[in-house]
Amino acid sequence: MLDALMDGRALSAGELARLAGISPQTGSAHLQKLLEAGFLAVRVQGRHRYYVLANADVAYAIEALNLLMPRSPVHSLRQSLAAQRLTAARTCYNHLGGALAVSIATALVESGRCDRFEAGFGITPAGIEFFRDLGIDVVGLCGADPPFTKTCIDWTQRRQHLAGPLGTALLRVLIERSLIVRSTQDRSVRVTERGRSQLAALFLRDVVA
Length: 209
Hints:
four-stranded antiparallel β-sheet; 2 domains; two-stranded antiparallel sheet; alpha+beta; globular
C-alpha cells in the first residue's frame, strides 16, 4: 500500500486494499497502524477519506528499503513489462527515478553542472545557469551557498538520482514541456518522441536507454 502511494497520489482505503490484494477490513486495520506510526496522512473531501504518504522522508525511507528487498519473481508477460517500465523511468514520490533519472544525474556531473558527494550533489555555477534557463531558481530552492541538493540511491540502478526540491522542480519542468508523460497504469513515466531529442540536447548526451 505504501508503494502504491509513491507516485504522490491520494488513494482511498478500498483502492489501497484492492492493490494490496487484501480484504477491505484487513486493509483498514493496516492503514490505521500506518497512520499511528506516522507513515500516512489523511485528506478529507466531503464524506471521502484519501490516504497519502505523510511526507518526503517516508518516501525516501521506502526507496531505501527497496534497496534491501529481494526482487519479486515475475510470472507473466504483463508483470515483466511493468517491471521494465518502472526500471526505465518512474516517479519516486515527488521526483524522477529509474534509469532515466540516474542517466540525467550522471550527465549533470559529467558536464560539470554538479559535483557528486556521498550525501548529495553540489550545484556548480554552470549548473545554476543551466537550471535558471529551465526556469528553476536553484539558489532559492536549495537555500545554501553554494547550492546543495539531496539525492536518492535508486533501488533499481543502485546509483544516485536527484531528489529534494530541485528533483521536484526538474520533474515538473519535464512534464510541463511534454518531454515525459505519466502512465495511467502505474508510477512509470514515458519519454515522448519530442522528449528524446530535447533531453539529449539539454544534457549533452543521450539520456534515454
